[in-house]
């Protein structure tokens, strides 16, 4: 455009100005690229800050909850020590020890969230635990690696976790439980959910990740986009999704595994 304008309104030799025009054009392009790159970085930081502001209070609640439970831990140990005196036969002592150990393990798994290196993720999972409790459901957490790594930014990981956990909690009935596994390998995070669910026929598998499809029978208009969005998010970062059935006694389980 500069060259055309000069050719119409100036007697200057245009060919002599071409190198200078090209130089300024390259400078403008480089400046645009740098600005766009900075805008992407700023956008990511804004997402991270927004998530931090949302889930940091939940992380504080988690710390306060665990700290409060630590005061009761000595009482639990004292109770375990007293079991042989209150249960003189082997059978009742065995049942009491199993019950007490299950309670201790449950308390310990809550503290595992504090060891995760991604604080926003820890706070988010804790909020989902409390949400499940209000619905009279249970979210079990098993952390295999506390040093989580991923190609996906943390604010996107929160979306992935939200879809997987919500999908599993909605699939189970009151007083049932689901399990969330967290692991990391080869620079990727591995998120696995396990819950009671339907048998995954080829027809269900073919439609499960399409927009609008849902296996839920209630409030169908509110469902059908979660797994579709999950697929888009994971594939955006060249991740993988595995889906299969597991079996426990007479129950059919659905296992979702996301590696990203």
Mean pLDDT over the residues? 81
Outline: elongated
CATH topology of one domain: Heat Shock Protein 90
Q: How many H/I helices?
A: 7
Pfam family, one: HATPase_c
Organism: Coprococcus eutactus
GO molecular function: identical protein binding
Protein name: Histidine kinase/HSP90-like ATPase domain-containing protein
Describe this structure in words.
Pfam families: HATPase_c. One of its GO terms (molecular function) is identical protein binding. The structure is a single chain. A 5-stranded mixed sheet has the order 1-2-3-5-4. It has a domain of 145 residues: 2-Layer Sandwich (Heat Shock Protein 90). Helix 1 packs antiparallel against helix 2, helix 2 crosses helix 4 and helix 5 runs antiparallel to helix 7. The chain contains 7 helices and 5 strands. By secondary structure, it is α+β, with helices and mostly antiparallel strands. Helices cover 60% and strands 16% of the residues.
Features:
260 residues, alpha+beta, Heat Shock Protein 90, five-stranded mixed beta sheet, elongated, HATPase_dom, transmembrane helix, identical protein binding
Helix-strand blueprint:
Layout: H1 2-9, H2 14-86, H3 90-112, H4 119-134, E1 138-143, H5 154-171, E2 177-185, E3 188-196, H6 202-207, H7 226-236, E4 240-248, E5 251-259
Parallel strand pairs: 1-2
Antiparallel strand pairs: 2-3, 3-5, 4-5
């Amino acid at each position: 455009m500069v060259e055309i304008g000069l050719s119409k309104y100036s007697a200057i030799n245009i060919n002599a100005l071409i190198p200078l025009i090209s130089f300024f054009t390259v400078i403008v392009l480089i400046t645009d690229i740098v600005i766009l790159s900075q805008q992407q970085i700023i956008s990511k930081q804004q997402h991270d800050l927004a998530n931090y502001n949302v889930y940091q209070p939940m992380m504080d609640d988690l710390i306060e909850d665990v700290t409060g439970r630590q005061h009761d831990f000595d009482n639990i140990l004292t109770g375990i020590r007293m079991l042989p005196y209150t249960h003189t036969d082997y059978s009742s002592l065995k049942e009491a020890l199993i019950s007490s150990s299950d309670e201790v393990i449950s308390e310990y798994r809550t503290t595992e969230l504090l060891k995760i290196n991604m604080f926003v993720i820890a706070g988010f999972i804790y909020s989902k635990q409390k949400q499940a409790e209000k619905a009279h459901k249970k979210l079990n957490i098993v952390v295999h690696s506390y040093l989580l790594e991923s190609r996906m930014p943390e604010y996107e990981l929160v979306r992935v976790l939200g879809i997987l956990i919500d999908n599993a909690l909605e699939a189970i009935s009151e007083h049932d439980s689901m399990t969330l596994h967290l692991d990391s390998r080869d620079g990727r995070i591995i998120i696995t959910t396990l819950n009671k669910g339907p048998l995954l026929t080829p027809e269900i598998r073919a439609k499960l990740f399409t927009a609008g499809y849902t296996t839920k029978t209630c409030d169908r208009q509110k469902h059908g986009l979660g797994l579709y969005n999950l697929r888009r998010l994971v594939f955006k970062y060249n991740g993988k999704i595995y889906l299969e059935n597991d079996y426990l006694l007479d129950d059919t389980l659905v296992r979702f595994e996301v590696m990203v």
